[in-house]
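Minutes, project check-in
Item: structure for the 190-residue chain
Input as provided by the requester:
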Amino acid sequence: MITTTSDRHLYIGGSEANMIYQNYNTATFKKWWSQKLSGFPQQTFKNINMNVGTILESDVIDLYERIHNIEDERDKQGIKGIARANTDYILDVKVSDVKVTGKAFEWFLKDKVSINYKRQLIHYMYVMDKLEASIIAYQADDELLDLPFQKLDENRLFEIYVPIKSEEIEIHRQKLEYLEFCRDMNIFPS
């Protein structure tokens, strides 16, 4: 059961999913894992894009629902072992993450998102037991970053389906279970 957002540091969340694929011997991984072992909350880094994305997340989902004439679950949370998910949107068997970015149209044209976002979706699919995943992306520009409280344009909204194989979810599960064992033993993974 999820009690509060103040205990998020005790779990591996979707935004950290990419870390579990890193080389355990790098300084970046060692620093991150040290923070996990400490049991103390970590400082989080945010930039203007992340802040605008947070501000507009609900508006982007409102627009998505209006366009598709649907409505489903927002901000659903779940925990499975050491893994925690705070999802943006769930529609039936699909989990979606919302991104407000200058790369939305590029992702749509290429039909591909970065590996760290794919791993975030793998994480959400694993925790929430979903079968499909997508990124709901809204094309940002400098004006939107400066003035995020404006009417959103449906022509700037894109959904990028991210194919994820069951083997990828299984690898993710194994990595999480190994890190949970390491955390419980208070050791660094090798």
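Outcome recorded: Strands lie at 73-74, 77-80, 83-86, 89-91, 94-101, 132-139, 157-161.
No further action items on this chain.
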